[in-house]
Amino acid sequence: MKTLEPESEAELAAILAGAKAPFRVQGGGTRPIGGPREGVALATRRLSGITLYEPGALTMVARAGTPLAEIESTLAAEGQRLAFEPMDHRGVLGTTGEPTIGGVFGANVSGPRRIQAGAARDFLLGVRFVDGRGQIIRNGGRVMKNVTGYDLVKLMAGSFGTLGVLTELSFKVLPGAKSAGTVAITGLDDATAIAALSRALASPFEVSGAAHLPGGGNDAARTLIRLEGSQASVAYRAGRLQEALAQFGDARFDHDGDAVAGVWRDLRDLRPFHGREGDVWRVSVKPSDAPGIVAALPGAEAIYDWGGGLVWLLVPRGTAAQAIRAPLDTVGGHATRIRGEAGEGTFHPPPAPVAALQEGLRRKFDPRGLLNPGLMDSPAQMASD
Questions:
Q1: Same domain flag for 128 and 253
Q2: Using one digit for the tens of pLDDT, what is the confidence trace for 348-357?
Q3: 138 and 15 assigned to the same domain
Q4: Whole-model pTM above 0.85?
Q5: DSSP string covering 317-351, please?
Q6: Domain of 54: which CATH number?
Q7: What angle do CA 51, 57, 58 make, to 5 degrees?
């Protein structure tokens, strides 16, 4: 079936206003996460282009279908970057195409640097979108400020296209780092590694990445801590951090720029899970509880990010959602299926009051149920994490 690709916001509004059947809303089509998607494919990739970039004001405005690669290369030319380090899902999901900036914010995609800089939604200043009635709505602006009524900027980040189709976004950017290094300890068990990461994150040394890869086979476990800044600053903080972590083992410092970038890119994109059988889950939990959650899942392989607050799981294909979520019932947290059959629900069921609020928002912005029906087979926690 042909994919609808409107070339303007007005054309998109006309399509939605006159619609009689639902749509599968997508950007570049690289993140097909969620329940069964019904309807005609509606892609925003032709709504493309950077419409405003003010490096001095650390602000960019771009249409939703603008390729993420274009955003990042434009920023890099001015020594700037997206601070929240969005993940590229193509490797773990086996998809093709080009990730778009609208898809990044629509799914609130945030990488390892979230623990220092914040999530994608924290950098979103303003949005333009078309709701399920075909109305063009604008909220927010180009500077951080309070708003009245619905804070649609925050609602749209993480709503997966179920409240409206994003057409344009304004967002804050930050200067890039001149240097980066990784302090690494090998051979730690999961619980000890989380303790080491917690020590690093509680230090004054401005950690911008804190992860643990348990290893397996011939690969030793690696506990990784990233530092960014000027070369002198990174070297000084690395030395102090090595002293602070001495009780956990021999902490080595790597400041080879390409190697450091490669390690954190592979972690961000879950490269250890690429090309492998099994379902992939994303679990948000209190770091100290994370090793116990993993231990309760026989056959699970884990990658710990955000100091242990984010756990990526590779589990046998068809593992029941309840098996993943049951350990969270007592400690709190939520689990989202990233790859695998939707089955019992891709998204973690929210508490009843939250579910009612989310359903109310859907009725308000998409009263005819046109936008990604079935994607949130269990209503998702919009703008989560």
A1: no
A2: 888 889 888 8
A3: yes
A4: yes
A5: TT--HHHHHTTHHHH--EEEEEES--TT-SSPPPP
A6: 3.30.465.10
A7: 75
- Is residue 130 within a helix (H) or strand (E), and if so which, with residue range? strand 124-130
258-265: long-range contacts at Cβ-Cβ below 8 A with a sequence spacing of 24 or more?
A: 260/180, 260/181, 260/182, 260/226, 261/180, 263/182, 263/224, 264/112, 264/180, 264/182, 264/209, 264/224, 264/226
Question: Which pLDDT value is given to residue 130?
Answer: 97
Max Cα separation, the chain? 66
Task: Note the pLDDT of residue 152.
Answer: 85
Q: Give the number of domains in the chain.
A: 3
Going by DSSP bridges, is the β-strand pair 40-43/23-26 parallel, antiparallel, or unpaired? parallel
The Cα 125–Cα 141 span in angstroms is 6
- Find the DSSP H helices in the chain: 9-17, 68-77, 90-93, 101-106, 114-117, 152-156, 190-202, 231-244, 257-268, 290-295, 321-325, 328-331, 352-365
d(CA 169, CA 61): 6
Same domain flag for 330 and 228: no
Alpha carbons 149 and 205: distance in angstroms, whole number: 39
Average pLDDT, the chain: 92
Q: Which domain holds residue 244?
A: 179-267
d(Cα 210, Cα 224) in Å, to the nearest integer? 6
Q: What is the pLDDT of residues 110-122, one digit of tens each?
A: 999 999 999 999 9
Q: Amino acid letter at 239? A: G
Q: What Å distances lie between residue 278 and 26, 205, 285, 319, 338, CA to CA? A: 25, 38, 22, 9, 11
Q: What are the phi and psi torsion angles at 23 (to 5°)? A: -125, 150
Residue appearing with tokens 């989560």: 384
pLDDT at 358: 87
